[in-house]
Amino acid sequence: NVMATEFDGVIGIDLGTTFSCVAVLLHDTIDVIPNDQGNRTTPSRVAFVNGQTLVGDAAMNASLRHPKQVVFDAKRMIGRKWGDKDMQKDCAVWPFGVEQQRGGDKTGVEIVVDPNTAAPADDEDVERYPVKRLAPEQVSATLLRYLKGCAERHLGKQVKRAVITVPAYFNDAQRERTRAAGKIAGLEVLRIVNEPTAAALAYGLDKRPALSSGDEEDARNILVFDFGGGTFDVSIISVDNGAFVVVGTAGHTHLGGQDIDAKLTKYLMEEVKRRHKVDVS
Fold this sequence. Notes:
- By secondary structure, this protein is an alpha+beta fold.
- It is built from eight helices and 15 strands.
- The chain has two domains: 2-194, Nucleotidyltransferase, domain 5; 205-281, Nucleotidyltransferase, domain 5.
- Strands 1, 2, 3, 4, 11 and 12 form a six-stranded mixed β-sheet that branches. A three-stranded antiparallel β-sheet has the order 6-5-7. Strands 8-9-10 form a three-stranded antiparallel β-sheet.
- α4 (136-155) crosses α5 (172-184).
- The mean pLDDT is 89.
């Protein structure tokens, strides 16, 4: 059994707001692993539909027919407090339910999903499934487990260890909950890596002589712009003998590609209504 063999390396996972990916270093080459559809990025979505759990592209495809059963933006919820102002704004637009945490210290959030797509009165013979109440890290864990499986199928070996990237501005609670998601997914998370640091490593900036030697004082500082699907982050990284230190970070947690899409959609709907007196909302 090939899968009984354990991979002795480590996978790297970019757990994004809108898309995620998994990569591995093989023979001195970074290999971004394709998912089951052959895509090297996977939508960060999980759907709970009539007893089935769908992840990635399958969950994205279910969004049109079953929007209330598809969970996304788990990264915007993980480690956050129910009372956060931004959390309340997001709750108003998410099609799935988000409530105050029932257990624990009751300060966090829970995602609430009714997996039943048919109303009870539609067909009494249809099996009914219990409502799901999930912590954000449980949703992230489902996505991580899927990416872990993609890596295992690609490598033909069991994968046990991973590093996971997070925004530089993530606080201790958000980092700890991300690590917990990895543990739930069956991964030993060796390190939580700041996303701008990962970007600098990907560009090989730790290997450039002027940066790693410190011969040029100004060259030791790198400005990283990270414009993603859910966030926009700017970080200044200092390089000292090949090691990266995040000196400062700033950004906007709600200025990503999907936020621009939402603004454009809202504008176009308003224009259609104004010009043609048709409400397409």
